[in-house]
Amino acid sequence: ISHRLTYFPCIYLIIFILCDTLFFKLPEQIQKQELGRDEPRPLYMDFQTGPLLWPYCFRNDPRVLDAMLPYQVNFYGNPHSRTHAYGWESESAMEKARKQVADLIGADPREIVFTSGATESNNMAVKGVVRFYGQKKRHVITTQTEHKCVLDSCRVLESEGFSVTYLPVQSNGLIDLELLDKSIRPDTSLVSIMTINNEIGVKQPIRDIGHLCRSRGVFFHTDGAQAVGKIPLNVTELNIDLMSISAHKIYGPKGVGALFVRRRPRVRLEPLQSGGGQERGLRSGTVPTPLAVGLGAACSIAQAEMVYDHQRVSALAQRLMHKITSQIPDVILNGDPDQRYPGCVNLSFAYVEGESLLMALKDVALSSGSACTSASLEPSYVLRAIGADEDLAHSSIRYFYYYCDYYALKCTVQSVRRWILASLLVPLWEMVQEGIDIKSIKWTQH
Ligand SMILES: Cc1ncc(COP(=O)(O)O)c(C=O)c1O
């Protein structure tokens, strides 16, 4: 008996160790395997396209993940089930999250509709309002520098017979309020202008736009994906009627967002999808409780830490600009130098081809435009809209460093500087040396 008692636990222990080694992988191993290499990962300076979430990177706020996990594992009821406790506990978590989102923007929780992200919110707002008021009010105004999802929604509306004005912006990226005023027609139903531009970081005069729209009896929608949680925004004070929100821009999970829809004066919109009538009939489909909880937690944290975060990001911006302009020649800041969110800096480097620069920078993850358009070698439409010369538009890089420290910033500058100084020896620079006017170059898509 004594022999068996010592023998069996040993066997179990050996089996356990074998299984653990064979079947369970450490997160680090998973990362390496998925990336297919053993090297350290590049510094992530592209937070505008969204911070990374577990399991890839803990740079996403772990507090958000902590809030979400119980709703992935223990509380799995459908928040729309009214007949049992499983549904009630999920519903109560969803309503808490709705309040957290509402509190961040000074809204009533009943004015928050959960969506899959800002793309859906923008589609819902632009198409929904214009289609609802369509018969009498067939005109919508937006700007040439909006996110693709707003511009493409407007194109769809045009194909349905609605009329759209795409306002140009000034060379600093800001709209001309007088021009907006003149563009409003008796049949205008909606003005859609983003708060902070995702490529050049400029901040539109939202207060003035809201005031103008309210005084002219036109609804005002703003794409707040890059602004909510980063700068103070109160929808009542700013006369905003609809606002799009995305969780993954503020350390929340990807795949969830919200649309603020004002109740008084009431905004009506035609829903995009038909179904069970969830979200006050505006957005049918089951609300994913863990994601909504993640969005709520991210909003709460952003609200509590906004002042500190803004100061930190402003200090980083100053340092980045100083380091880059003092070490690299002919650098141009795209967009207004003052009316901007400091966490997004878009720079053009004369004589350097932006895409090659980004590809050569193995140790820093940056982008040359918005994530959705950066696959194209065409210069960014935002840079074109502000009148950037084509050669400079081709040599632009966007830094976005909402969640980074001085050390990461220093490494980025060193890396960019090293490569730029090396690349000054290659084509564009050589052409300038040979006296060729590079503005006369015809750029084509490869
Ligand atoms: C200004 C702006 N609007 C909308 C979106 C789309 O957001 P989501 O990824 O949540 O659909 C983005 C994301 O890149 C953005 O920057």
UniProtKB/TrEMBL annotation:
GO molecular function (one): cysteine desulfurase activity
InterPro entries in the cross-refs: Aminotrans_V_dom, Aminotrans_V_PyrdxlP_BS, PyrdxlP-dep_Trfase, PyrdxlP-dep_Trfase_major, PyrdxlP-dep_Trfase_small
Catalytic activity: L-cysteinyl-[cysteine desulfurase] + L-cysteine = S-sulfanyl-L-cysteinyl-[cysteine desulfurase] + L-alanine
Transmembrane parts of this sequence: 6-24
Cofactor(s) essential for the protein: pyridoxal 5'-phosphate
PROSITE patterns, sorted: AA_TRANSFER_CLASS_5
EC identifiers of the protein: 2.8.1.7
Aminotransferase class V domain sequence ranges: 61-384
UniProt superkingdom: Eukaryota
Biological processes annotated in GO: [4Fe-4S] cluster assembly; Mo-molybdopterin cofactor biosynthetic process
Keyword vocabulary terms for this entry: Iron, Iron-sulfur, Membrane, Metal-binding, Molybdenum cofactor biosynthesis, Pyridoxal phosphate, Transferase, Transmembrane, Transmembrane helix
A Gene Ontology term for the protein's cellular component: mitochondrial [2Fe-2S] assembly complex
Family the UniProt entry places it in: Belongs to the class-V pyridoxal-phosphate-dependent aminotransferase family. NifS/IscS subfamily.
Subunit structure: Homodimer. Component of the mitochondrial core iron-sulfur cluster (ISC) complex composed of NFS1, LYRM4, NDUFAB1, ISCU, FXN, and FDX2; this complex is a heterohexamer containing two copies of each monomer. Component of cyteine desulfurase complex composed of NFS1, LYRM4 and NDUFAB1; this complex contributes to the activation of cysteine desulfurase activity and NFS1 stabilization. Interacts (homodimer form) with ISCU (D-state); each monomer interacts with the C-terminal regions of each NFS1 monomer. Interacts with HSPA9. Interacts (via homodimer form) with FDX2.
NCBIfam families documented for this protein: PRK14012.1
Record protein name field: Cysteine desulfurase
Protein's organism: Periophthalmus magnuspinnatus
